[in-house]
Amino acid sequence: MEVFIAIMVGALVAASVYLMLARNVLRFLFGLILLSNAANLLIFASGGLTPEAPPLIAYGATAPPEGVANALPQALVLTAIVIGFGLFAFALVLIYRGYQNLGTLDSDEMRLAEPEERT
Questions:
Q1: How far apart are alpha carbons 35 and 15 in whole angstroms?
Q2: For residue range 52-90, what is the model confidence (pLDDT) as tens digits?
């Protein structure tokens, strides 16, 4: 199972890098979100994948039993998902306003502060 997750993380990172190299700002945003999802999956897998063994501590025990997943990476991934969604919403609105003002999503044509030099 861990090998499949590692291959999936590699594929997500490769797809995100491909999207982030495009000139379209919207594709860059989707690549950034895909990269954050790949990082979340990597963190989640690092805590251990134990189906049918929840990381619960029995009454009176001081630690969970051996062989269960670590709950800390799961909590970190939940926090990262919320932060990633907030980043996505903010960047999407920022891109939309940029498109309204400039009329393009091509990053090379978004040169409002740096106009092209005339030779």
A1: 8
A2: 777 677 788 887 777 777 778 888 999 999 999 999 999
Residues 70-90 as b or e (16 or more Cβ within 10 Å = b): eeebeeebeebeeebeeeeee
Q: Which helix (H) or strand (E) holds 15?
A: helix 2-20
14: tokens are 């490769």
Q: What are the tokens at 60?
A: 């009176």
Q: Average per-residue pLDDT in the chain?
A: 87
Mention every residue, 6+ apart, whose C-beta is less than 8 A from residue 102.
109, 110, 112
Task: List the beta bridge partners of residue 49.
Answer: none
